[in-house]
Known about the structure:
This protein is mainly alpha-helical and 119 residues long. It contains 5 helices and no strands. It has helices at residues 2-21, 38-48, 71-79, 83-92, 103-116. Helix 2 (38-48) packs across helix 5 (103-116). It is rod-shaped and about 100 Å long.
Amino acid sequence: MxxxxxxxxxILGCFQAISQAxxxxxxxxxxxxxxxxxxxxxxxxxxxxxxKLGGGQSCANxxxxxxxxxxxxxxxxxxxxKLEPQIYKCVTESxxxxxxxxKSQMNAVVRFLSKRYKL
Length: 119
């Protein structure tokens, strides 16, 4: 009887030591695979009309629906390095946005168009 009690206490002690040594279960934290690209989001906001340029106008007034930009013409403009001047011309024309665009917004729109249309 004495051996049985001693053996059961040893087994119980070993079990407790093993269970406490392993610690609590904490699953590994899953990080997002792709960092959110803030510059891309700003360019998307300018292009879609969420961010207004000039006197309350936006690029979406000219570039949505059937008037949306086409990949072929953008590739042609991009190949000639005329994307920035074309955007600047589009923004500053009086019949279009009639506004101004700063350098950071210009870079954001160029990045958005490049990634969106895979230029």
